[in-house]
Design a protein that fits this description.
Helices cover 13% and strands 34% of the residues. It is built from one helix and six strands, in the order βββββαβ. Strands 3, 4, 5 and 6 form a four-stranded mixed beta sheet that branches. The protein is elongated and about 45 Å long. The protein binds zinc ion. Zinc ion (ZN) binds next to loops.
Length: 121
């Protein structure tokens, strides 16, 4: 599972913590055929619901804030779970923007047709 830790503080609007794992193709479709609702691994009590969140990606001196990123959000602790395909797209966007020499940028996530995944079974 790809886990981009990007907690948006709903009170202040600030993003608190960010780490992200580089997604790879092998695991990109991990959750594709799974039920959308899952148990939160952080608080182990909540279940996730579809929503949007803000993601902060940092690399070297480069910082990218992506708003309105689709995510599964824990109803109890608000931990965000971002789909592997979305995470991968964020990385590609971050790469492009970083290569333009930008140090900090804020973008609104644009929804595109889903990454096609092989259907199991
Ligand atoms: Zn939780």
């Amino acid at each position: 599972m790809f886990h981009v830790v990007a907690t948006l503080n709903r009170d202040t609007g600030n993003i608190i913590v960010i780490t992200a794992y580089e997604p790879d193709d092998e695991h990109l479709c991990f959750r594709k055929n799974q039920k959308a609702i899952m148990k939160c691994v952080m608080c182990k009590r909540g279940e996730t619901k579809p929503g949007v969140t803000s993601v902060l990606l940092t690399r070297d001196d480069f910082t990218l804030v992506m708003r309105d990123v689709p995510a599964e959000i824990c109803e109890i602790c608000s931990e965000d779970y971002i789909d592997g395909g979305v995470a991968k797209r964020l990385y590609h966007l971050a790469d492009e923007i970083q290569h333009q020499g930008t140090l900090i940028d804020v973008r609104k996530y644009q929804t595109t047709p889903e990454v096609s995944c092989p259907v199991e079974g």
